[in-house]
Amino acid sequence: MVSDKNEWINELIYISYRDLPLQTLLKNLYSFFSIHMPLSYLTLYRYQDGTITKIAMHTNYKGLFSSPDVVRIPDDIMQALHLDTTNSGALYQTRICSESAGYPYSKVSKMLHPNPGTSIFVPLDYFINYGELRYLSVFSLGECSYTQDHVELCETIRKPLGAAVRDILLMGEQKKGEHREHDRNSYLSDESQGEPQTFRSLDEHTADYIRQVIKHTNGRISGKNGAAAILGLPPTTLWSKMRKLKISSR
């Protein structure tokens, strides 16, 4: 039995979102956030090697907002980000990004959002071995549109949301692989060309990722720095996945 009621809520969010198309997830999230805070648009980003790539975006104001699909952060700003003491631990923190604050990350925010405004940075996933970060940007026109209450709301749903987005993107990659395999088999009609390439299942990719996180935590599942916290899952859900995928905590 789950002792922490927050785990029930987290599991409900995760289960409710994990099987949705990514655009539907953002649309539903937009509807929810719009009730509780000012909102112009939501954008899901991927950061790696000094480059930020837009994964998906949703707004109810079609044609009014646009943002670049890819932003390369200049070397001088990258250096300033590394030296900025106010940026310490920022990869793991949900926080307000004001474009007029004068910090290095404020300059990055301006590059992503051509319209002046304020955003909330919501980190969803950080892959240590690859230096890759996925995060949600909650953006509103105008200065100081957000409060600490809004930040806490985003933080409350951050981990289950991140776990759901991870599953959706993994499923998308698997489907792309299956589509490429289908095209390849159609082209290679001559069996003499050799055995068709096989693609690993979503469960295999998921199992590898969970094992990597468990190894990183030295087998620790629960707790603040445990594997469940990193994956954004309730410990009971992670244990269930481990049993299903035959993953050991050792």
UniProtKB/TrEMBL annotation:
Pfam families per the record?
A: HTH_8
Which residue ranges does the record annotate as region Disordered?
174-198
Question: Which stretches does UniProt call biased (Basic and acidic residues)?
Answer: 174-185
Q: Gene3D superfamilies, per this entry?
A: Homeodomain-like (1.10.10.60)
Task: Quote the biased-composition stretches of kind Polar residues, using this chain's numbering.
Answer: 186-198
Q: Which organism is it from?
A: Desulfovibrio porci
* UniProt domain DNA binding HTH: residue ranges: 208-245
Instruction: Tell me which InterPro entries the record gives.
Output: Homeodomain-like_sf, HTH_Fis
Domain of life (superkingdom): Bacteria
**One term of GO molecular function:** sequence-specific DNA binding
**Name this protein carries in UniProt:** Fis family transcriptional regulator
